[in-house]
Amino acid sequence: MVDKVIQLRDISFYYRHGNRVLDGLNFTLRQGERIGFFGPNGCGKTTLFHLIMGLIKPASGIIKIFGGQVSEEKDFRPVREKIGFLFQNSDDQLFCPTVLEDVAFGPLNLGKKPKEVRQIVRETLETLGISNLENRISYKLSHGEKKLVALATVMAMQPDVLILDEPTAGLDTAAAEWIVEILNKLNLTSIVTSHDMPFLTKITEKIYGMSEGHISPADKATLHSHMHVHRGGLHPHIHSDEG
Ligand SMILES: Nc1ncnc2c1ncn2[C@@H]1O[C@H](COP(=O)(O)OP(=O)(O)OP(=O)(O)O)[C@@H](O)[C@H]1O
Ligand SMILES: [Mg+2]
What is the best residue among 15, 25, 85, 87 to mutate for testing ligand 1's pocket, by most ligand atoms within 8 Å of CB? Predict the structure, then answer.
């Protein structure tokens, strides 16, 4: 098995008519690592993920995945079968009329038999606690429901590696805790971005800060929890920023 799952060397990227988003960025994800990315809005986290998945191409630099250089669409196709990518915006992930069809799409595309796919869909929805959504119309789901179904479409592919862009944004406390449990049980090589630092610390072992197109290890000493008081505190809740 290849040790270096993802290698980015000297990656620069800018959107047309936009400023440079990534500037000589270097990053390596090794087998078994679970890495979190933390950074302000617009610092380039989603852009970086889209580059890794081949949805956009770097202006310069080299991307290697599973040890092989990837640059053209044909190089990325097999990558997408092994790396499960959760889009930040669930509407980019769900395109079938119903939840059942959306979750079945990936495994069917991998060539699995309809009977097996049926079983995978059932189990995946069950694991995520959303069996009740199976026959719902995808685009009519709530924001949080869409997020969970989008995660189901990723998990149904039974990927070796996970890249999750804001997996708990918009989820209630119980659903977010459930996601923590599922991800820790799966224990897959992964990269996750979130604005919720406590969540990130629960599901990753290393956190990188991202700013101005670069990645740097987050100072461990800044990660802490503290007592706090505020209105509504009796209800279970998650803080997006522990300051
Ligand atoms: N399609 C696009 N065309 C032009 N500029 C874009 C496009 N997509 C993103 N950008 C810009 O690139 C920068 C990086 O965006 P990106 O979505 O990667 O940030 P992010 O770190 O994921 O932010 P957030 O935390 O809000 O999700 C931002 O300034 C954004 O406005
Ligand atoms: Mg983003």
Answer: 15
Does residue 234 lie within any of the structural domains? no
Q: State the closest ligand 1 atom to the C-alpha of 49, by its place in the atom list counted from 1.
A: 18
**Ligand 1 atom nearest residue 17's Cα:** 4
Q: Which of 192, 130, 131, 115 is nearest to 161 (CA)?
A: 192
Beta carbons of 219 and 192 less than 8 angstroms apart: no
| Parent domain of 137 | 4-219
- Closest-lying ligand to the alpha carbon of 87? 2
Tell me, using a 6 A CB cutoff, whether residue 139 lines ligand 1.
no
The answer to whether residues 175 and 144 touch, using CB atoms and an 8 Å cutoff, is yes
Closest ligand 1 atom to residue 88 Cα is: 27
**Total of domains in the chain:** 1
Q: Is residue 134 part of a domain?
A: yes
- Measure 22 CA to ligand 1 centroid, in angstroms: 11
Helix (H) or strand (E) holding 108: helix 99-109
Domain harbouring 189, CATH code: 3.40.50.300
pTM of the predicted protein model: 0.90
Which of 58-62, 212-216, 223-227 has the highest average model confidence (pLDDT)? 58-62
Evaluate whether residue 239 is within a structural domain: no
Residue-wise pLDDT tens digits, 90-107: 999 999 999 999 999 999
Q: Is residue 233 part of a domain?
A: no
- Name the closest ligand to CA 20: 1
Q: How far apart are CA 163 and CA 4, in angstroms?
A: 15
